[in-house]
Amino acid sequence: xxxxxxxxxxxxxxxxxxxxxxxxxxxxxxxxxxxxxxxxxxxxxxxxxxxxxxxxxxxxxxxxxxxxxxxxxxxxxxxxxxxxxxxxxxxxxxxxxx
Length: 98
Hints:
By secondary structure, the chain is mostly helical. The chain has four helices and no strands.
């Protein structure tokens, strides 16, 4: 998460909803090459999903990089984490960090 301290506190509270899937860690990072200019120039808070990358580069951008390598349980956890964060932040009564 790259937003304000107040926003981080809110995100950390939201993350407690993800305890059962062990997705509660909020680190001081977020974004990526595709959104970094907007985040930086617009001073927009951003979040990104950080996952275990220990196997990622073994097949990334190789002929073996096919959908059958996706672990359905891990994909479900990732989708749940993103969905919970997006839904709860979107439903806040005020903008994140205010």
